[in-house]
Amino acid sequence: MGDTKILPGSRHRSPLKRPIWIILMVSFVSLFLVCAYIYPPNSDVACYVFSSRGCKVLTDWLPPPKRELTDEEIISRVVVRDILDTPPVESKNPKIAFMFLTPGSLPFEKLWDMFFRGNEGRFSVYIHASKEKPVHVSPYFLNREIHSSPVTWGAFSMVDAERRLLAYALKDPDNQHFVLLSDSCIPLHNFDYVYNYLMHANMSFIDCFVDPGPHGNGRYSTRMLPEVEEKDFRKGAQWFTMRRQHALLVMADSLYYSRFRDYCRPFADGKNCIADEHYLPTFFNLVDPGGIANWSVTRVDWSERKWHPKSYRAQDVTEIAFSLNLWNGHMKLEVIFNGNFGQYSFSC
């Protein structure tokens, strides 16, 4: 017994002390970040205490706060919603409004006369002549001029002329689809093809895409904020066809119209913003992106990469085949370009 060693019993360990100071520090930092996010510091000095990048260090990884809509935005959204939710007005005699934006006379008026012939009652013609009164050779164009104002290329007056044409065309309740054309445009198919194609399409054919280059988003002005953000800025060809509901939306818009009128104009902010290439694409991207095709049914050749599209001259005539067909006693015109232009109805 004397040699027996008594093993020590299990030691009683005191409970571990919780790192209270770490918990307090984490809580303090979390509270500070939340407060800084909700009430961001107004001075640059306060921002740079925490980062050389300034206040962005706190917002780079946090979700952006939800912006409160302006009064104009609320009004605009109510009007847009009501117009889009209103069933289209049914017409017993639906027509297409062909709206010509031209400086004067139409050099292809005889061609359009052949296109329209035999389809009376299914179309309307409107002419915005910005420089001189046109001289007509077709009865379909007589007395179809609307009140016009001078139009300058690249200026906002182009948008005003488009809206003016739409306003006059909307006065006729039978006009259900609206086509913008220039004096250099010609039809690529006969009237029946164009009529059925547009009337049966439940959308508007408005070109709309993102152009990150200097002639796209490079034209954007931050003075359009908060209503128009750069991520929503779009570009597209001027030529469009649109259904009646969308034409009414364009007439009802004052919010985005005023932003483009004031800040998307030649040499605004040192840039040359071509409003007719940006207003409608951006507008419909914001109010009804699912209602447009994002492409135009008018073919324009920009392959020369100039300010104006390629002009077809006498040597190009061999590229066009004219076909006159007798159908139900009426002459029908079809113009076919050599190439795959199936999605196009017109060429300018």
From TrEMBL:
This is Glycosyltransferase. Keywords: Glycoprotein, Glycosyltransferase, Membrane, Transferase, Transmembrane, Transmembrane helix. It is found in: Membrane. The keyword Amino-acid biosynthesis does not apply. Its main location: membrane. The keyword Transmembrane applies. GO terms for molecular function: glycosyltransferase activity. The lineage of its organism: Eukaryota, Viridiplantae, Streptophyta, Embryophyta, Tracheophyta. It is a single-pass type II membrane protein. GO terms for cellular component: membrane. It comes from the Eukaryota.
